[in-house]
Amino acid sequence: MDNSAFIDGFDTAIDNALFWLGDHAGFLFDGARALLEGLYDAILWLVLLPPFYVIAALAGVIGWRALNLWFGISSAAALAFCAAMGLWSDTMETLALVIAAVVIALAISLPVGTLAGLMPRLDRALTPVLDLIQTMPPYIYLLPSIALLGFGPATALVATVIVAVPPAIRLTALGIRMTPQEFIELGQALGLSRSQMFFKIRLPFAVPSIMAGINQSLMMAFGMVVIAGIVGSGGLGATIYGAIRTLDIATSINASIAIVILTMILDRVTQSAGQGAARAGKERT
Amino acid sequence: MENGEVLIDCQSVWKVFGTRSAEAIRAITERGLGKTEVLQQFGCVVGVSDATLKVHRGEIFCIMGLSGSGKSTLIRQLNRLIEPSLGKVLVKGRDLAQMDAATLRETRARHIGMVFQSVALLPQRNVLENAAFGLEVQGVGRDERNQAARAALAKVGLSDWLDRYPSELSGGMQQRVGLARALTSDPEIILMDEPFSALDPLIRRQLQDEFRQLTKDLGKSAVFITHDLDEAIRIGDRIAIMKDGVIIQVGTAEDIVMNPADQYVADFVAGISRLHLVKAHSVMIPVADFRALDPATDPASLPQCDGQADIDALIGKITETGSDAVAVTEDGAIAGVVTTRNLLLSVRGDGAPAAH
């Protein structure tokens, strides 16, 4: 049986739908693109404003406060090394992209995760959607966005946000749901209102889990911004993608090292913030 | 105590757990099913079955039962943490079930304090903030609530620990903070859900005595859950014994020890020391019986004691005076006689003349 006609028809329908969206809702996507790129540009402007050694020193201080002096010095030195490799602006572009994506992802996933934690039915409805998002190869998310938003950082941002959202939703919901029963009972017995129960009982106990969600979200975002080099994200992803196409192995390795440095610094710092919150909770129980 | 104002009036309260609990309740009301039938026919577990009790102002009411007896379910129905399936709970004359959410919150916040076995101190807050938590959520200003919390913590002897965190405190101290938190809101009634069960025996006895003293000094009423009969006797003005969701017996410690309602209660009280529990008036024999036993002795010549004297005091009297019997006086007249034999029997646990 020949079903190529059916497949052609299906493809045409999708193309037409995308054209239709482009024609009729183009202003929406243009607006979205402007908004996303505005956010990205603002963050990028901010991190490129001071010379590289100021940012490196700042990272050093944060690393020192969050973990220890040794980690702080290593972080500062590693970032200075990125600059020495001539990859400073690329590194900062990637950082800006990750920060922008995670900020948007958290703006979505913290409220949604909280609601899912409070409403088991919403949680049950969301779970298969999140499963689907996490099962699909991340490349897929570049396609609809490139069709509607075009080549550039906006598309990279959308795709990155999509993969960064699920872990933060899951861990936020888990944290809110897992409030120890005795404290719920305490709240009821003391006559707490619903909002007091949330802010004074549920949220403090959920903080460690939420911090773990933010950390996971960040890690997913780092994975995606490299892939998003293909759609013109700029930064280290684009450098690696370009180097691969020209078989410039040395440059691609330089860029990879820069990504590893950036990832490790942000991972360790957010992880220690989460553990700090967990310790504050556990040690005192 | 019996005559005081009734603060908690729990009328024929049931709690049925299970998916078919609604049908089970209908069967209980319409056909008078018991808990065994309910389990067989509907697969529902009856947590509390037809519990009726009254707690009066100034009284400490203990509910004693082993795990699974429904005592924790019952106490949670007294502030509607658990909704009764059937029956009514009146707190200060008002039906809890009829209250809207705001009134219920208000009642819980101001009139009924609760202390938990798990203590449930908020780990992120220090001792003072934990003790002030009840007032904080009522919207009381910081200075005022901290002052009340300091006063409550002083009552439980923790004035030097205000800035510490719960993890820095021993189990006994944590439970004191739990008690202080309940006292800070100055409720009339305190519900105590096995508060001392997780503590070691010495600390437990100390806290029991302190709790009783404090409750009496402050004029509070309390419902106290425990699985330990000794604890119930030490603390309670009256004791209810629960088994399988049913209250088998309610009475003073002496009532329960002297006249157990059934074999279960009798087995329970068998090991209890009667020295301070049993009073002269419940072990004495009538004067006529004494004359029949010992015609040579004139009851008026015996050493005398009050009807409220406990066995320990009677033994003291007999050993001091060398007499074989003590006359029990009530309102200046000799109401009966306690012989050495009566005393020995009552110490062993079957000394009540009625039991002969």
Question: Please, could you describe this protein's structure?
Answer:
The complex is a heterodimer of chains A (285) and B (356). Chain A has one domain: MetI-like fold (Orthogonal Bundle). In chain A, helix 9 runs antiparallel to helix 10. Chain A has twelve helices and no strands. By secondary structure, chain A is mainly alpha-helical. Chain B has 356 residues and is α/β, with parallel strands linked by helices. In chain B, the strands form three sheets. Chain B has a six-stranded mixed β-sheet, with helices on both faces. In chain B, strands 2-1-4-5 form a four-stranded antiparallel β-sheet, sandwiched between helices. In chain B, helix 9 links the parallel strand 7 and strand 8. Chain B folds into two domains: 194 residues, Rossmann fold, CATH 3.40.50; 76 residues, CBS-domain (Roll), CATH 3.10.580. The longest helix of chain B is centred in the middle third of the chain and has 18 residues. In chain B, helix 7 packs across helix 8 and helix 15 packs antiparallel against helix 16. The chains are: A mainly alpha (285), B alpha/beta (356). Chains A and B meet through helix 9, helix 10 and helix 12 of A and helix 4, strand 6 and helix 6 of B.
Key features?
heterodimer, A: 285 residues, MetI-like fold, 12 helices, flat, B: 356 residues, alpha/beta, Rossmann fold, CBS-domain, four-stranded antiparallel sheet, 22% strand, disordered C terminus
Concise account of the structure shown:
Chain A has 12 helices and no strands. Chain A is mainly alpha-helical and 285 residues long.
